[in-house]
């Protein structure tokens, strides 16, 4: 996933799903994409590695879904 402006990706965002553990949630701008990607997968826990927007930006949407 990435944050783009005018079709050019400004920075890339990574998150990992390991046996139901989601490591980071990506940024707010990619939250919908991440939720759609995980739609058919089980997420039982979320681990946030540190407090930067590209790691925590999708937390609220993931919690809501």
Keywords:
single chain; 65 residues; alpha+beta; three-stranded mixed β-sheet; two-stranded antiparallel ribbon; 5 strands; 28% strand; globular
Describe this entry's structure for a reader:
Helices cover 26% and strands 28% of the residues. Helix 1 links the parallel strand 4 and strand 5. It is globular and about 35 Å long. A 3-stranded mixed β-sheet has the order 3-4-5, with no helix packed on it. The mean pLDDT is 89. The chain has one domain. By secondary structure, it is an alpha+beta fold. The protein contains 3 helices and 5 strands.
Cα shape: globular
Proportion of strand residues: 25-35%
Helix content: 25-40%
How many individual β-strands?
Answer: 5
Task: Output the number of helix runs.
Answer: 3
Question: Could you say which structural class the secondary elements and strand pairing correspond to?
Answer: alpha+beta
Biggest beta sheet attributes: 3 strands, mixed
First-to-last CA distance = 19 Å
Which strand order do you get reading across the main beta sheet? 3-4-5
What is the element string, with H for helices and E for strands? EEEEHEHH
Q: What's the Cα radius of gyration? A: 11 Å
Q: Provide mean pLDDT, rounded.
A: 89
Whole-number total of structural domains: 1
Low-confidence regions: none
